[in-house]
Amino acid sequence: MKLAILLAALGLAAGPAVAAPPQAPADLVADGYFEIAEPVADHVWAIRQAEPFHLQPIGNVTVIEQVDGLVLVDAGGSAGGGRRLVGLVRGLSDKPVKAVILTHWHGDHPQGLSEILKAWPEVRTIGTAATRRHLQTPATMNTPAAPDAERNAALLKQFGGVPPMARDNAAKATTEDEREGWRRLERLFLWLVKDMDGTLTIAPKEGFDDRLVLDDAQAPVEARYLGRANTDGDAVVWLPNQRVLIAGDIVVSPIPYGFGGYPREWIETLGKLKTFDFAVLIPGHGRPMRDAAYLDRLTALLAEVRRQIAPLAAEGATLKDAQGRVDLSAQSRAFTAGDPWRELWFDRYWTQPIVASALKEAKGEPIVQGLSG
Ligand SMILES: [Zn+2]
Question: What are the CA-CA distances from residue 351 to residues 87, 207, 258 (Å)?
Fold first, then answer.
């Protein structure tokens, strides 16, 4: 038995008692939906997908308790996810949600906003100018701005196709890890199919260019735009009193996302993240981090992609050609530990899309945000 557990059992644990947060329902946690992370800092909680790796389709949500209300960073990825969040947030504090800051436009971060607005109609909604613009353009999104039966049915059909596909793939899998991975995907998407029903895209009312401050005596919040990275408008949120930095999908673990990113500027933005004297970094997906080791690994990975792409772009390689020739197998092990299931997703989530972005960047072509970008 660990000493700390023994001491706690005897009521002798050192320091002030930190109340464990109320937890999400056990079946949600077991299937890789929301759980509430260990206390992140005073007045700060992270709500995130449970371990093990469940393909990360749901963005982290951070809850910050100010004196007169709560600030959320991100809003869940669906109407049902937003309703689950409302329940979890009410379990953490009796205070109302006063503001929601959206880190970026990708659907798994803003799409629970409609339900948060139903629960707390006075809430301020905030994003960078670029994020606001994307969310005002429902063509960028897979969900409509107002109820639309036809688009809703198409979306449910799309999500509904995942569980049977996952079941088929589990049956064909050649390793136990892969079989279990597809089974986890099936279980999680059975929740997501229900939760996507009625999901809307709501744009934040307030945009900002560089900085927006929500001042407070115990937990002031600074929303910042540091430059392009994962999208063209990623917000990061800094809590100077708690020294917590919330990075959105500029930082995703264990497998980063490469869709529509800007490799050169991403490296610069990661460098700016390192200048914050953070005690905790909350990524867009994955566990809170206590040091900059993962930022360094991600920076090195982006630099390696750019190094390999440069000569391919110079010789005019096509996308298919480049995707076949870029080899990140030496780098991927640091993210996947060699697990074949994670290797598969490293290739799909990172290598294929980031090669597409890096090739465009190297050829001087625009990287366009949007579902088809
Ligand atoms: Zn995300």
Answer: 37, 32, 7
| Per-residue pLDDT at 28 exceeds 90 | no
Cα 255 to ligand 1 centre (Å): 11
Q: How far is the CA of 252 from the centre of ligand 1 (A)?
A: 8
Collect all residues with Cβ–Cβ distance below 8 Å to 303 and sequence separation of at least 6.
Answer: 267
Lowest mean pLDDT among 50-59, 155-164, 182-191, 240-249: 50-59
Question: How large is the average pLDDT for residues 199-203?
Answer: 96
Q: 262 CA distance to ligand 1 centroid (A)?
A: 16
For residues 288 and 37, is the Cβ–Cβ distance under 8 A? yes
- How, if at all, do strands 244-252 and 280-285 pair? parallel
CATH of 19-146+199-296, one of 3.60.15.10, 3.40.1030.10, 3.40.50.300, 1.25.40.890: 3.60.15.10
pLDDT bucket at 56, cuts 50 / 70 / 90? confident
- Give Cα separations from 266 to 205, 230, 297, 301, 346 (angstroms): 27, 7, 13, 11, 18
pLDDT band at residue 18 using 50, 70 and 90 as cut-offs: low
Distance 145 CA to ligand 1 centre (A): 20
C-alpha 32 – ligand 1 centre gap (Å): 15
- Look at residues 255, 265, 231, 362 and name the one whose alpha carbon lies nearest to residue 308: 362
